[in-house]
Amino acid sequence: MKSMNRLAILLIGFIFSQGIQAQTRKLTLKDAIQYALENKADAKKAKLKVENSEYQIQEVRSRALPQISAHGNVTYNPILQLNALPGDFFGQPGTTILAPLGQKWSSVGGVSLTQNIFDQAVFTGLKAARTTREFYQINQQLTEEQVIERVANNYYQVFVQRQKLTVIDSNYVNTSKVKEIIKGQYDNGLAKKIDLDRITVKLHNINTQRQQLINEVQLQENSLKFYMGMPIETQIEIPQTEFEVTPHALSEQPDSTQRTEYALLKKQEQLLDYQKKSIVAEYYPTLAISGSYNYIGQGPKLPLGAKSSEGVYWSDYSIIGLDLKIPIFTGFGTRARVRQADIELKQVKEDMQETKLSLDLAYENSKTQINNSIITINNQKENVRLAEEVLSDTKNNYYNGLASLTDLLDAENSLVEAQNNYNSALLDYKLAEVQLIKAKGELKTLIN
């Protein structure tokens, strides 16, 4: 019976472990970026804005198309208005007679049409609407680039944090081996208790650092999942691959006016220009044609369904007209709005100059950071190699009684420090590389 229970427990454990593995998602940088572009709210909203711009164009276009509507009403006049009429109409010259005009009931139904013939604001609005669509398309591209940048930065930070965790795990294993050797020596009377206590304290400190680093890794992974639009509870695994550290082509200064940030401001300038033109259009006259066809019924009772024999009479009538509106004086309100539009245009021009300067600065800074990071990485790689040699020699000397425990612990600390410095330099390089790729307008190459 016990063996059956043990088998059932093992089976349940196996199924549970398989379920956990099935939920773990392996992520390369390309996978992480692709997932973010499809699931992050910012990317989705940018796509919706592009879609919405099509409806904005349709809305403006509708103002240039005929407006057709049907109407109808029923009116009851409990007291008819009396009108003072000359008595001549009634065979009573020289008198005035109060006579009601109209009927107690009237009902009208008809169709009306209005068509703009000339309205400068409508024509300008159509051009502005098409430019708005282009604006949101550029904005979508900029949003995607921002998503890529955030995901790439957080992805590299998670990777490096995990590398640091690997370093501290290795340090813990090595220190544990040293502890076992010292314990054996102590048991045989060849080592002091203080040495065993010191190495035990070192292990406890390493374990504490490891727990702190595990927490930092988890927090960093949560940030990555947030920027990807991925459920926080999803388990992720980042493949253990070596980062490529290679010099970049830094000789050519990229044209910052071709960057998405600058193009967006350029399109915004175009929109503000159309906004100004739409205000200026208020100085122009407008001309529209309108027409309607109606059917009216009048009588002493409700006309609907009534006949002429009941005193209800129906007739039709139609109207065709031209509506011309010529602005003459608007209290200088239009002029003030035009001048406000001029100020907004000047402001966006200043923004464009500032953005160009900022983009050029970002390129130069990333280029400098790349060069410095490569130098630092090479130095730290050599430091790691030397620290490994020093630790190996110190271990041999310690085991042969030629070095103290302090020398051994110092050598271990130096190696860990060198490895962490190397990983930090690697992170600085990758972050600078992202900024360099961004400065060259090539962030989307990260998903190719």
UniProtKB/TrEMBL annotation:
Signal peptide residue numbers: 1-22
Molecular function, one GO term: efflux transmembrane transporter activity
Presence of keyword Membrane: yes
Entries under InterPro entries matching the protein: OMP_efflux, TolC-like
Main location class: membrane
Intracellular or extracellular location(s): Cell outer membrane
Keywords: Cell outer membrane, Coiled coil, Membrane, Signal, Transmembrane, Transmembrane beta strand, Transport
One GO location term (cellular component): efflux pump complex
Domain of life: Bacteria
Residue runs in coiled coils: 196-223, 338-428
Keyword Coiled coil: yes
Family membership noted in the UniProt record: Belongs to the outer membrane factor (OMF) (TC 1.B.17) family.
Protein name: Outer membrane protein TolC
Species classification: Bacteria, Pseudomonadati, Bacteroidota, Flavobacteriia, Flavobacteriales
